[in-house]
# Entry
Amino acid sequence: MSNPLHFSLIILLLLVTPFLSLSSEDVPSSDDDDLSEIDELLAVDEQEERDSLQKDISSEAKVLSKAQRIVVELNNDNTQKTIEQNGFVLLLGYTPWCPRSAELMPQFAEAANLLNELGSPLLLAKIDAERYPKTASALDIKGYPTLLLFTNGTSQPYTGGFTAAEIVIWARKKIGDPVVRLNSVIEAEAFAKKYSMFVLGLFEKFEGHQYEEFFKAATLDNEIQFFETDSDEVAKSLFSDIKATKPFIGLVKSEPERYTSFEEALETDKILQFLDLNKFPLVITLTELNSAKVYSSARTLQVYIFAKSDEVKSLLQPLQEVAKKFKSKIMFIYVEITQENLAKPFLTLLGLEDSQKIVVAAFDSKISTKYLLETEPTLGAIEEFCAGLLHGTVPMYFKSQPIPNNENASIQIVVGKTFDYLVLGSPKNVFLEVYTPWCMSCDATSKQVEKLAKHFKGLENLIFAKIDAAANEHPRLEVTDYPSLLFYPAADKSNPIKLSAKSSLKDLGAFIKKNVKPEDNVAKKDEL
# Structure
């Protein structure tokens, strides 16, 4: 960091230099008083600047001092001693040039402050892996940022979220402090303000089988803060819709669906399943931070709404009402369509990567299928689309380019929408080239096919065709190597014959002559 005092002195010198460079001949004697006044003003400004800088430096020093007390900066000399002398250490390995490290640092510092307020025995520390590479390597820090929890000197990788609250929750659970006990309304309300989501447990006594199941669930869950109390008044202050009976467990979220009660047998597995189904908002906004959790959710059937933020504003509230009806079965996710790193991978799967309109689609990761709402995305249409997904009446979606005009073409262009009738439904033999634009050897194969199409132009029972597999899909087109050559016999379209794309022109010609019946050949009898 540049020295602000040094910078100010440079500016001051630049201001003063023009006056100092004037000779006595250059300055009229009648202006001596003016020059003296300027010198006085400059002296005052310089002193004020020094005083201001000193205040800034002192203030910054206080902040740094506080940060150093809470987050310990490690180096080659103190790392081993710090880890050995503290039972619990959460270590951040970072580099100054890493953007993700820069994003995580303020969250890590805030987590340190929160843990300090909670009186946690956990020490937070950080090490600049670029400055101390050998020490970082010895700690098994390979990527940046890396978070490791040391318990009595033994490390385990961090698996939690990356907000300050998520770091605190994960860390407290791992050091054996998974539940916060609340004894007063004031204490409860103060804690509740710090968490956008939490679990509340109300028990007569903090013992017995049901409480043990609750405590076990709190230990196994890595994402949500658990609170417990034996006070009806405290519980009511956090969960206004609470039932009067004990024990009670409920989930509180900072969104329209604020309170959700757990109403099954109080068992660990059922509590965790309840949380997994209810922890997300009714309509989730996909971000870099939550994407991993969303993709790994137990609800594998997910409906995505790709739209611009101004388009989704009026749609969001009524969409939440639709989401309520399918909450246990379907996850609803909003993706800002202009965020390429989040939206484009999905839109590319749909063949809609250039879309500027609202796109509603569904993906089922369990069976690797995708579905597209192909009508106007009204709320009624979205609700009907979701109901159809659950009833199996919505057909799977296969991307396709627009239907081309193949009139007078020697090689027919096949797209996803025309594969059935141009290839599978055709009464003729079909010689199909499957290619992709990024395939380096596809051009050479295309030229071979063009020569074959020209040579066998007179065969009325043979169609030459090609399909771009990057932009078109069909359930019966199961090809993973490009280029691929497939021959669909007229008599049996269900068993295409795969030919080597490395075959010579002569070999391909011989194959066609052998597999197309002589009586169907017309006119063309020349040898290749």
